[in-house]
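Colleagues,

For the teaching module next term, I've prepared a clean inverse folding example: a structure given as tokens, and then the sequence designed for it. I'd like students to try predicting residues themselves before seeing the answer, so please don't circulate the second half yet.
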């Protein structure tokens, strides 16, 4: 189910230019349709600027995948490489990699991404979120991979490879990597969910460019507009928060299902 949901999200993101009804950034409605509930003309209503909520929600799938997939890829690559090197080696190499891993593990992701955004500017917010998620989540992947490699390197098939004269690089690539790839995919799915939530958080805080349509940005505009009109805790139009909120929940839930399925398959393989 999670894979089907992800496939549907990718389908929407790819075909977003053909699915939207209006330009999500610059196409403003007539004055009588500004901040208007759903109508036949605007199926999900309009925001405080008169932009179509439906078109923004559909376009938001692109921004979500642009952040989520590169984050997962970097977490998988860095975490797997460091975890395999740390687990297979011993002594000073393992000690150094573990200290580096712990250093990144305790670094909070929000200040790190905020630092990158303020250094690069709001137009580079999406790459900043990708780097922030990657730098703060790869240690968890690396530690899990390291623990698995420690249990694998003393197995008979690894000893047989060493006796046959296989190099350390060959053992890592041909014998150990295929046995830890399932853990890599598991933590990549977790990284995707974290990236989506972090991206929505920073867009809600207004640290990104307004020209990049994201679900967090939609929530931010709605909240600040309602606050300026009605004060803190004031009335917020439901049609401006339900679509982006459900879209975020949809993406996170799809990757949660994928990670749950991977966990179950790992448990089944361990029992066998």
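(Answer key — instructors only)
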């Amino acid at each position: 189910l999670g894979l089907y949901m992800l496939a549907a999200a990718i389908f929407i993101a790819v075909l977003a230019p053909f699915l939207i009804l209006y330009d999500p950034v610059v196409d403003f409605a007539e004055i009588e349709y500004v901040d208007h509930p759903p109508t036949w003309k605007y199926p999900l209503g309009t925001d405080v600027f008169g932009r179509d909520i439906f078109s923004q929600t559909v376009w938001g799938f692109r921004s979500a995948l642009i952040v989520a997939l590169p984050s997962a890829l970097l977490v998988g690559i860095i975490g797997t490489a460091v975890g395999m090197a740390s687990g297979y080696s011993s002594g000073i190499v393992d000690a150094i990699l573990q200290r580096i891993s712990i250093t990144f593990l305790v670094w909070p992701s929000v200040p790190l991404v905020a630092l990158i955004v303020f250094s690069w500017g709001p137009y580079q917010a999406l790459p900043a979120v990708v780097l922030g998620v990657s730098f703060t989540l790869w240690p968890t992947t690396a530690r899990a991979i390291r623990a698995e490699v420690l249990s694998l390197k003393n197995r008979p098939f690894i000893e047989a490879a060493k006796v046959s004269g296989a190099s350390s690089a060959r053992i890592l690539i041909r014998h150990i990597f295929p046995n830890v790839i399932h853990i890599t995919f598991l933590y990549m799915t977790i990284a995707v969910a974290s990236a989506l939530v972090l991206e929505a958080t920073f867009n809600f805080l207004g640290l990104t460019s307004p020209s990049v349509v994201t679900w967090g940005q939609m929530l931010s505009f709605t909240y600040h507009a309602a606050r300026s009109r009605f004060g803190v805790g004031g009335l917020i139009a439901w049609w401006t928060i339900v679509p982006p909120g459900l879209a975020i929940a949809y993406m996170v839930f799809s990757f949660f299902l994928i990670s749950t399925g991977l966990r179950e398959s790992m448990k089944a393989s361990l029992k066998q």
